[in-house]
């Protein structure tokens, strides 16, 4: 159970994208400029300088004055956008205004996340990448609303015509805003776009919107009305969690929360068999995650997208049944596939079977497809190309696996914590094995692989026992227990 909680939290943190690089940010006193540097070990440091430097894009000269004005002179590299890595992050509560100079070409959409006292952002007129209007930050073409300052004192705001994207964290913790008008033409709402806007009362998305990101309205505690049109093709994880809408029991239908024709979440205490309502277009990521008492789920013909990690933690789930008229998904013997049955998406973790043969024609085992299953044996087909991340995570009864020739990659944590796994056969074709792919397996695990192959070197590098065999030996056997 602890392992299931851990992977649930890992999935959650990944969707939030709150990732650190193992380093630390050192404080820079006020009235000093700083530059950001990253070492190969992932350590982050801010170096004090007497004046802004423009010598390299890897440096980020900036200055925070006593009056709370942050001035940014150079770029934030794209890989250093996360707020925990912003050099002013430790000073975020002191920032009241921000000035972006003309040399800044890439500052990152989350650079001001957590700056809860920020009232205004000003961009130099000579800047070729950004502009500000009434203190709000946009890209130069005004197609993307990047940041609405969290402390801007305004209750009603109309996003300008021409904007096609509301960036991730754009309205993060804007507590004064009660109403935001989103114009027709906006196509995407980014991750955490309205996170923590606890005075926001209602949101109506126009028919032009196609994607709504993860946690888009998370913790908007006063948000009682949300309208999501049928034009939306992707609905993110947890977008309504912590809202008044989520807490209103009248919005739930047999233990499932819908917004329009989009399934947002299921009650974690739901049990037995659940049927997704006919007409449902999308199922949000992690919608059924943690529904440990649900035994079966039926998907209607209308559903065009099922989000990631949707069935993680459904311990008793024995089948997923898809209507035969569905154009995007299919099922066979309770196992979920894409329509063409080239991708195995989910083998229900409560499905009891000693062994399982993946059907011919499957080329990809999806992320988490077999995670937490009780299978002792899985036979993989010829033609398989890739095994996804966490695909066999914590399959405690799995004792052996033969990966057929033609597979080129094994995902991160693919066989993590398969504590009974003692034998793995990998072919010459495997050229990529993700982090911790065979960690926490049986101590006596042996990888059989061709001499001089990438899998052999992987086994050596990771202290795993290996048994080389001639490169021309076939690797597809009819019984996965044969070696």
Overview of the structural elements:
By secondary structure, this protein is mostly beta strands. Helix content is 6%, strand content 27%. The strands form nine sheets. It has a seven-stranded mixed β-sheet with strand order 7-8-9-11-13-15-17, with no helix packed on it. Strand 3 and strand 4 form a beta hairpin. The two termini are 32 Å apart.
Summarize this entry quickly:
6% of the residues lie in helices and 27% in strands. It contains 3 helices and 38 strands.
Order of strands across the widest beta sheet?
7-8-9-11-13-15-17
Reported for the largest beta sheet, the result is: 7 strands, mixed
Overall radius of gyration = 25 Å
What separation lies between the terminal Cα atoms? 32 Å
Low-confidence stretches: 8-59, 77-84, 476-483
Number of helices, counting only DSSP H or I runs of 4 residues or more: 3
Structural class of the helices, strands and pairings?
mainly beta
- Indicate the mean pLDDT: 86
Strand percentage lies at: 25-35%
* Overall outline: globular
Helical proportion? Answer: under 10%
Strand tally, please? Answer: 38
List its salient traits.
483 residues; mainly beta; disordered C terminus
Task: Please give the structural blueprint.
Blueprint: H1 2-16, E1 33-38, E2 44-49, E3 62-64, E4 69-72, E5 97-100, E6 120-123, E7 130-133, E8 136-139, E9 144-147, E10 156-158, E11 165-166, E12 179-181, E13 188-189, E14 202-204, E15 211-212, E16 225-227, E17 234-235, H2 244-247, E18 252-253, E19 256-259, E20 262-266, E21 271-275, E22 282-283, E23 293-299, E24 305-306, E25 319-322, E26 329-332, E27 335-338, E28 343-346, E29 355-357, E30 364-365, E31 377-379, E32 386-387, E33 400-402, E34 409-410, E35 423-425, E36 432-433, E37 446-450, H3 454-461, E38 465-469
Parallel strand pairs: 4-5, 5-6, 9-11, 10-12, 11-13, 13-15, 14-16, 15-17, 20-22, 21-23, 22-24, 23-25, 28-30, 29-31, 30-32, 32-34, 33-35, 34-36, 35-37, 37-38
Antiparallel strand pairs: 1-2, 1-3, 3-4, 7-8, 8-9, 18-19, 19-20, 26-27, 27-28
